[in-house]
C-alpha cells in the first residue's frame, strides 16, 4: 500500500493543528455554529441526531494493520466501542465529543489517518475496487491513480467550495466493483492500441434524482488524468447550479445543458491546460508508484494441498470458502471477504475487539493489508491459500465468518433514523429483521446472488436505486412505510430499479421481501439463473402480482 | 471591513461608483457592466480604474482590456460560494493579469491561504479579528499538492527533486 512520506506526514500534522485552532475558536465563541459548520464538515465532523459524528477517510479503502488498531483505539477511547464502515469505504464513529475531537484526530494522524474531505462541498475520498492489486481481472492497479487523485484533490484551493459534494471512483477490472457509473466522475482503466488510459464518465449519481453517468471521453491518456479532472471540476465550479441544494450536483448540470455541450466546455478548457503543470510525466507517476509497498508474495503452488484437504473434511468451511473466497493473481493466494453482516446485527458495524482481531489476522495471514468494500464488508486481499482454514476458524471465533457475501442478507443500509438527522425511517432494524428471516445458510445459498439496499430517505445513502431489491423508507402520517424497487444494478451494466407498487408498512415489508424471493425461486429456470436475470427476463409484473398477496 | 494588500493593512484609494453616478477624480471602482460600456471614455482618464466583477461573469471578456485595469475585485457573497476561485486562477494563469486582485464579500481567515494560492493579493477582511490573521494563515501549511500561479512547489515536484539529488 501507499506509504506516507515526510511531505504527507507534515501536511497532516499541519491539518490537525489548524483544526484544533478552529475547534478552540468555536468553543470560545469566536466562531459561531454557522461559520464553524463548513470547517468541521471539511474535517469529517457532522452533527447528527444525538451527537457529533466523525467520519474518517480510508483512501480508496486501503488500511494497514496498525491503522486498523488505531481505529479500534478510537472506538474504545472516544466512542462506545464500535465503528461503522460505510458505502464510501470510510468508517464513522457516532458518539464523539467535540472537545475530544482534536485529540482523536491527533491519534489518527499518527497513523496517517484523518477525516479530511469526508464531507462538505469538496472532492471527497476517491473510491476504488476493494480487490485492486489482487484480482487477476484488472489490467493495472487502479490505486496508483486513486493516490494521484487523492493528492491532487487534497485541499485543492480552487475546488474546496464547490456547488455540492463531489465523488470520484475508479476501476481497472472488467467487473466493476466500484460502481463508477453512479459517481460524479467514474474512471475506467482500459487498453486501446496497447496503451492504457481512462474512459471518463460524468454525471452519475443516486440521491433524489438518480442518473447513470455519461461517457464524455472514451480514451484519455494517463498523462492527462489530472488536467482533464481539473477541466471537469472547473466547468462544474463555474457553471454548476448554486440556487438549489437539490439541483447542485454535477449530474444536474450535465442533464440540463446536455452531455454534448458539457463535453464541449470541458474539452475547450482542457486544451488550454493539458500541457501545463498538471501533465503527468513517467517520472511523476513512478514517484507515486515507488511509494506503494507491494507484498513480498511467497512462492506457492497454484493449488494448495492443505486447502483441498480442509475443504474435503469440513463442510462449514467449504461453505464459507465457496462464498467468501475469490481468485488471486498470484499462485497459491486468495482474496477473502469478511462479512460484516452477521444475522441480527447492524450492517457494516465492527467492534474494537473485532478490529484488533482483523488487524492481527491480516498480519498473520495476509501481509498486513486490509480493505474496506463499498458493500460495507472488509477484505483481506492477499491470503495464502494454505492458511485459509486457520483464518476461517479465527474469524468464526470473532463472529466474522457469516457465509453470506453477495447473498440476500449481505444488505447495504444507511444509518437511518437511529442516527441520522435527515432520515424518515429506520434502516438498521429492518436490515436486522431481514437477516433474521433469512438466517438459514442453506436457503440463502440456494437463493444465490441477491443485493438488498435500504435507504431511510430519498437522499439514498443506502443506494436503493441500484439494489436488486431496493427499499426506500418514506413517512406517511407519522408511520414508517417502505417503497420497493426491483432490478437495479451498480456494476458495469448499471441501471436503476423499477418501482414495484405501493409502499408497504413497516410490519409488512419483511414478508413482501420474502414473497419476492419465493417468487424468484418459483420462476427461475434453474439455480444458474440469478434473481437479477429473472427480473430482466420477465420484468416486474410477475413479482408485483405475488408480492402483495399474503399466503 | 479593512483592506489588506500584499500582507499590509492599507487604506483603499479606490472609490466605489454606483451605476449612473458621476465619476470623481482619483481611482475609481466600477461595476463590470459600466466598465464595459464606458471603457473608451475611461481609457482617456489618467487615473487607475478598478472593475467589480460578479462571480457568475466569464472573466475572459476582460481579456482585451486588462492593460487598462489596475484592480479587479472578485466577490464571495457567501464564503461557501467558491466561483471566484476559478475566476482568479483564470485571470492570473490564463489571461496574465498582474494588477491587484482583491477578494471582497464574506472573506474569512480560514479561506485566505486558498485565495492566495489562486492568485489573490488583496483582501477586504469581513471580521475585525481576522485582519491580522493573514500572516498566520499563510503559515498554516508548508506542503501543497496542486500547482497554481502562486508558484509554491508541489509535493510531487519536491519529491522528484529530492529523488534526483539522492
Key traits:
heterodimer; A: 551 residues; alpha+beta; 6-stranded mixed sheet; 5-stranded antiparallel sheet; 21 strands; B: 166 residues; alpha/beta; 8-stranded mixed sheet; 5 helices; globular
Question: Could you walk me through the main structural features you see in this protein, from its secondary elements to its overall organization?
Answer:
The complex is a heterodimer of chains A (551) and B (166). Chain A contains 18 helices and 21 strands. Chain A has helices at residues 6-27, 33-41, 65-78, 101-110, 143-153, 225-239, 250-257, 259-273, 282-290, 305-313, 315-324, 352-365, 388-397, 428-437, 441-447, 509-523, 531-538, 541-547, and strands spanning 45-47, 52-56, 62-64, 82-85, 91-96, 127-128, 168-171, 185-192, 195-202, 214-221, 325-327, 333-338, 349-351, 369-372, 378-384, 412-413, 452-455, 469-476, 479-486, 498-499, 504-505. In chain A, a hairpin with a 5-residue loop joins strand 14 and strand 15. Chain A is globular, with a radius of gyration of 23 Å. The longest helix of chain B is centred in the N-terminal third of the chain and has 12 residues, at 32-43. In chain B, helix 1 links the parallel strand 4 and strand 5. The termini of chain B are far apart. The radius of gyration of chain B is 17 Å and the shape is globular. Chain A binds chain B through residues 5, 7-8, 10-11, 14-15, 17-18, 22, 30, 35, 38-39, 121, 151-162, 234, 237-238, 242, 272, 276-278, 283-284, 287-288, and chain B through 58, 79-83, 85-87, 89, 94, 108, 110-111, 113-115, 117-118, 129, 140-143, 145-148, 154-156, 158-160, 163.
